[in-house]
């Protein structure tokens, strides 16, 4: 009986936040802090937020950094631990998706103030 490795196809999941969105961290070590999303990792469902969740990384000497040493860089945070900040009220809010009545394109909107993001 031979065991075969099956490739699991991941569904094209749409996330409620995108690169450039201002978000608030709702749990974890950085709870309560706000920042802008720099990068979204869709496969791992994680986001990188500018200036938050910093870790130290050892760097070997190179031409760009001849002395080497340690650098601080952002580590990822799971997407479920962040909430979009409503541009109208400045409070964290949930995000919905609906079809635009005129163009019939999908648009994101905030649940608190019903404004399009």
Kindly report the spatial arrangement of strands forming the biggest sheet: 6-3-2-1-7-8
Taken in chain order, the helices and strands follow as EEEEEEEEEE
Counted beta strands: 10
Mean pLDDT over all positions = 89
Share of residues in helices:
under 10%
Label the CATH architecture of the domain at 22-89: Roll
Looking at CATH, which topology of the domain at 22-89 would you report?
A: SH3 type barrels
Shape: extended
Q: In CATH's first tier, which class of the domain at 22-89 applies?
A: Mainly Beta
In short:
This protein is an all-beta fold.
Key traits:
0% helix, extended, 117 residues, SH3 type barrels, mainly beta
Ordered list of secondary-structure elements with their pairings:
Elements: E1 22-25, E2 34-41, E3 46-49, E4 54-59, E5 69-74, E6 76-78, E7 82-85, E8 92-93, E9 95-99, E10 106-110
Antiparallel strand pairs: 1-2, 1-7, 2-3, 3-6, 4-5, 7-8, 9-10
Structural write-up:
The chain is mainly beta and 117 residues long. It has a domain at 22-89: SH3 type barrels (Roll). 0% of the residues lie in helices and 40% in strands. The chain contains no helices and ten strands. The strands form three sheets. Strands 6-3-2-1-7-8 form a six-stranded antiparallel sheet, with no helix packed on it. A hairpin with a 4-residue loop joins strand 2 and strand 3 (46-49). The mean pLDDT is 89.
């Amino acid at each position: 009986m031979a065991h075969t490795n099956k490739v699991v196809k991941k569904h094209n999941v749409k996330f409620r936040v995108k690169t450039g969105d201002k978000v608030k961290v709702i749990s974890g070590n950085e709870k309560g802090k706000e920042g802008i999303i720099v990068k979204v990792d869709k496969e791992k469902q994680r986001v990188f937020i500018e200036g938050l969740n910093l870790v130290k990384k050892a760097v070997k000497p190179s031409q760009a950094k001849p002395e080497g040493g340690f650098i601080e860089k952002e580590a990822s945070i799971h997407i479920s631990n962040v909430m979009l900040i409503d541009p109208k009220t400045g409070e964290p809010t949930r995000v919905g998706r609906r079809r635009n009545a005129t163009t019939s394109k999908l648009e994101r909107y905030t649940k608190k103030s019903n404004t399009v993001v």
